[in-house]
Amino acid sequence: MSKILIRGAKVLGGEAQDVLIDGETIEAVGSGLSAEGAQVIEAEGQVLLPGLVDLHTHLREPGREDSETVLTGTKAAARGGWTAVHAMANTFPVADTAGVVEQVWRLGRESGYCDVQPIGAVTVGLEGKKLAELGAMHDSAAGVKVFSDDGKCVDDAVMMRRALEYVKAFDGVVAQHAQEPRLTEGAQMNEGVVSAELGLGGWPAVAEESIIARDVLLAEHVGSRVHICHLSTAGSVEIVRWAKSRGIDVTAEVTPHHLLLTDELVRSYNPVYKVNPPLRTEKDVMALREALADGTIDIVATDHAPHPHEDKDCEWAAAAMGMVGLETALSVVQQTMVETGLLDWAGVAERMSVNPAKIGRLDGHGRPVSAGEPANLTLVDPAYRGAVDPAGFASRSRNTPYEGRELPGRVTHTFLRGRATVIDGKLT
Amino acid sequence: MMRHLISAADLSRDDAVLILDTAEEMARVADRPIKKLPALRGRTVVNLFFEDSTRTRISFEAAEKRLSADVINFAAKGSSVSKGESLKDTAQTLEAMGVDAVVIRHGASGAPYRLATSGWIDAAVINAGDGTHQHPTQALLDAFTMRRRLVGRDAGLGKDLAGKRITIVGDILHGRVARSNVDLLHTLGAEVTLVAPPTLLPVGVETWPCEVSYDLDSTLPKSDAVMMLRVQRERMNAAFFPTEREYARRYGLDGDRMAKMPEHAIVMHPGPMVRGMEITADVADSDRCTAIEQVANGVHTRMAVLYLLLGGNEPAVAHARPEESK
Asked: Nearest residue of A to residue B174 by CA position?
């Protein structure tokens, strides 16, 4: 493999430095580096981050290849600056056996655009009734460490307790989709002033918060770690903050859309804003940003949820829940966290690369940008301004809430173990 | 005048008064030996009903026929819709057949708004009830009834409902009638009080332009009109209230309670009534109850809406309207 010299990039937003990649690893970081015959990338003004790691991606394959495949999803990931994604288990068939997780893992290896780490279902068929063969999924080639029934809540307290305990044997973690099912029957949007006016079934904050409260207490009781998917309310932040102050081993994620959008957008009845958990209020958005800044929330995860056009081009109640996010996540984080002064780029690297890799126990990702480390890198031009155009997405689906919205920043290059997957914003 | 009627909240005071005044003109037509106007001759209106509602559908149909429109009734049950055809495809199919207006009843809140704003079709859209969102022609016919009874048939022309005290009782949470009425009555200057058990009020109701009370008895003496909303018996199975009898005791309108209302005050009900639940038979059948009158007024009001939305800027019938409503 040839050498690549990235010249003058602000490493983690700091001083401009040169980074030399040799083969799959970073050979040197410093100033005035030169290398005979190396491909040179002039990166003045750009920010160099460790390759982003998504702990929450729906790649839809197997089963819903009409909305996304492992190949199209990983292309979208590369364009968004991700070098690893965790593929959620709610496929058809559900990723609840070693066979299915190995299939997804193999498809990821074949795609080559980013690493795909399958997540295994906690219960068979995501039905909450019978524990899936978590050990078999862990022992498979896919080496599953994260388990989740995402899309559905492990609402049975005993089932949740057992899962939390069981995965300790192989350092696994349960990622909970916190949604009390009875409180959210018929729920269509955040319950509050807007739902009252629109006549859409309310999705109360307490449906999320009550499950998180229960699960942090369960984790404490059995001495397990627990990860909370897509935190969306100010109350959830308070509970996680309290749990961490007690020393409970809890981690939490927030999606880019919950850092930016509010339920006011639902007034359009445009299902592009329909998502689970629902968009909340301005107060929640501000609390989530603050929690991400102070470390109460550990990571940003996309919850990239592709859906075909017809599943959104309809009345609200009939529409599918979810938004694509891989190709806009970093821009949203730049706007909501960096440009507001809440986080610097080193903080972004921690929350979008280092911490998610740690939670997922994913080797080779989320590493420092220094000599000897794997060359998983993302180069961002933070000065870029442009309106989001879904027609340019690599994802097979277009269900973005940001169409036409101006967002800052653009991923110019992504490197996966030294190989450029994106050059000048284009897939290789 | 607007192109669509989606929500009562979209109507300005002047829009609403114009509709009510036009409805009075339409009412005069109903007194003639031949109850028909040529206003919509050659125009086609489809009644697109995804939910069963015989009363509302018949009311619209009568209004459309009295305006000489060609009427197509489309009930989604048993049609291609029940086989998975989307709202978009259904609407585009109908428009391709030359429909000028779509009167839509749909179980999903916001479906008429989507139909009017998504670029799927060009026809005018009239909301005939969507989910638990809005039912604007119901609010208009209720306001029409109130204005007639509380202000006067002729004296009311050009006027709103300023200062009138309206109490709405029952299932506010699942009720599109209550939402529409709060919006329109507020626009028309009335003072609205909602009365319901706390379980049947939406979270967020505190921001609505109205008062909220859990106590019917203390509200009745301060009411010019009391509107009783239907409460479905099945609600008690989801623990919204313990039993039918307890609901009736606390929130039902019987003869004793009606006696607490001022003498001039009326009892309203959008129908269908659940006698013995929210209203007793003697109240329902009393002179003070306007339920039947509301049905008649529904046809006049829907005629006015169709006429105004489908391009009738001239007076519908040959007599001048009061100056201020022009």
From this structure: A199
